[in-house]
Amino acid sequence: MTPKVSAIVVNHRSAAEAALCVASLGRAFAEEGIPGEVVLVDCGSGSEEIPLLRAIPADRQVFLEENRGYSGGVNAGLAQARADSLLLANADVVLAAGALTALLRAIGERTTGAAAPLSVWDSRALLRLPPGFAPGFFRDFAQLLTGRVPAFDDRRFASFARSTLRLWEVGGRVRHLSGAVLAARRDVFDAAGRFDESFPFEFEETEWEDRVRSRGYDLVFVPSARVRHLWAVSASRNPETGERRRVSERLYRRRRYGRLGHALLERAARLPARSPAFTAIAEPRVAARSGAAVAISPNPSGIPFVAADLSEEFRLPDEVSAGLSPGPWYLTVFRKDDGRPIERLAWTKAAG
Asked: What is the reported pTM?
């Protein structure tokens, strides 16, 4: 029987998480009555991880000798997938009930090029991850100049917060989707092409989505579809992640903004940093505040962010903080009605 959907799960040094991901897909196929297959692709995790991956009940397994990145893993999976509807996923995601059905419904619209779910970070689903953060020359430039004009920083944060809260509630068309989980049809890949393997880490889905939009398709965020994404866990295990991300970022900027635009951004990045005024806190805890939420970001600008409601006291769950890289993390308390920042806090995670 030809499957209705092929789920391509891309793994790198995350066998335990991949097992949970594949199990959640199996439940979705059974409980939602969707004939599906799982193509598990490993990107050069090494000989120690292969026996663990072989024990995972995927329909097809592909072991790449080198780490070709998420883009290479997706492309290798596409070569094995049989269905016309496709689900692309990092190994560190777990689908909630009904998520697969909602995503397939979204890509059933012929104008939809790709769809993504709402991702939560923790087991209690307190923290919601951003729907996406579309790059652009002026947005990238403003990120690099954070702290120089506080009033502008506040307006920019408020605008992003309002947009993000709206998408979390009602969804809709967007300029960019996070690539942790993407649903798409095969004909969209036929029109836009495969992922570009020149991007070793991140920006691969951004560049592909640019091509999808240029062909007239919409990108759609679907909040009724929920997944848990163990964001930053896999990246924190891989010391080469930072450099691979920088390579991808430089490549994307050169291609999209040209040599001059890229040079201007590189020059702005070398300017002395000026962060907004933050109050240092000893632990990532924020008191309850009616009508407010707290945004958490590794960026001094506070965006993009993960956010939680402050109807009760918030404390960053241990399961989340354990996977974070050492260094400063920025917490911005903001009003939910207009997105305006109320208080800026900074917590530094100690090494070790």
From this structure: 0.95
